[in-house]
Amino acid sequence: MNIAIIGAGISGIATAIILQKAGHKVTLYEKNTEIGGVWAMSYPDVRLQNVGVQYCFSDFPWPKKPDQHPTAAQITDYLKQAITHFSLDVRTGHQILSMEEKPNGWTLNIENAEGTSTIEMDYVISAIGQYSGGKNRPEFKGESIFKGQIITERDVKDLSIFSGKKVAVVGFGKSALDMATLAGKNGAEVEHIFRTPRWTIPFKIMGIHYTYPLFSRFGSVMMSSWAHPSKVEQVLHQKMSFVVNGFWKMLSGLFATQMKANAWFKGKDAKQRIHAVLPDHPFTMDLRSAAALEPVLYYPYVAKGIIQPHQGTLQSFTEKGIKLQDGCEIDADIVVLSLGSQKPRFPFMPENYRSLLEQEKDGVQLYRHIIHPDIPNFAFAGYNHGFMHVPAAEVGAAWLAAVLDGDLKLPTSEDMKKAIEYMCHWKREHIHFEPSRSCAINTRYQQYLDIMLKELQVSPYRKSNPVAEVFGRYEASDYLGVYEEYINKKEKRKAPLSSLELWT
């Protein structure tokens, strides 16, 4: 097929690599002049929450060893090298203006520096990303009279903007925590305002890097999910839920103790500030796409008073700062509204399909996080976003290749919609709201990967021995050769694959 991928971030590139292996002619169209998606528009000092060995293509290790948690510059450089290595056709500065459906594909209207043009494609994949679009930027009363600056983290290009300033940061996601910490690090007086404190994941759990306990099956099997792909997990979560609940209660207690330790021997005020940023809801409710690692200096800065926490809701701006709903007024020179991203939008899609995709407040709802039953010749890449994002993108692309080849028989449209609704209902019951809640797998990456691999009849158990399988940290290289394994088994099969029923 002649396939267009909209977006040249890491999800689009991963998908192109696999589909090119499958024999398709793939072209990536990126509206910006730089590839990399969200990494090309990130704020200074932002780093990957995963480690580098978990955020790379399975058959293209980092040519040059990056930092343990790579910077945005290191990631974009790696992606450029991957494009060259795999000889991908990437066209930057090409924006898809609109799409028109035809019997066996799409007509795409494209704009670039030379003008507009039209191309015909058999299949289109949206890889525009969950976080590359607009920021959630509500309007507040009194903004016009405020004498300072109102910005989002996207507007921060140089951290010296914070030097010697009074800075108010609003929000409690990863970007908000980063902004508060970076402002404090650059000599600002920081006021941190949030409606609800969230659980964060420490870089080290009792001295061990968090990826070792949480990225092994020993940790991932404890994740509650809308689907459990093995009998062991089903029994554990259905019949022995007290074990699962006990595990997360123990872990959240440990995390809370590590947070409180920052205030030990620092007086009553330090303890009160740390208490203000401690959540009182279950840890698992925050295991979502926006789940954040704690910035190393955030809690120490709170304990020292460099960051002053305020639990409340921003009501309006004043001439000198902001006013909260409880009447508290906070002076500020700069207000950083770090309130998350908007839900994904698809302005290039025909209106009937666009409304179908954008109607839910918590994001796009898809079968296996890849296709919508009512939209023909169209799929999504990167909407299976999670803590093992690149393997999920690669395995999702292999699954899609099987569908395109007619080797994987999908359920009826009605059954796919039932599966989608079941998954979305589970997420709404068990995960706090975010605009991308429906279109992410977050910390349920292992369950998702196992299901997709089982549908391809490829072993989901990628380690060399049982001990390593249970306790070894999973990395991108563990999924090396997945597509080739699928092809080898395909050649020996006499019948197509079938989708598995949803485990509960």
Automatic annotation (TrEMBL):
Q: Look up the signal peptide feature and give its range.
A: none
Segments spanning the bilayer are: none
User: Which InterPro entries does the record match to this protein?
Assistant: FAD/NAD-bd_sf (IPR036188), Flavin_mOase (IPR000960), Flavin_mOase-like (IPR020946), FMO-like (IPR050346)
Q: Which Pfam families match?
A: FMO-like (PF00743)
Sorted alphabetically, the keyword list is: FAD, Flavoprotein, NADP, Oxidoreductase
Recorded hits in SUPFAM superfamilies, A to Z, give: FAD/NAD(P)-binding domain
Keyword Metal-binding assigned to the entry: answer is no
The entry's family comment says: Belongs to the FMO family.
Q: Which PANTHER family match?
A: DIMETHYLANILINE MONOOXYGENASE
Specify the protein name. Answer: NAD(P)/FAD-dependent oxidoreductase
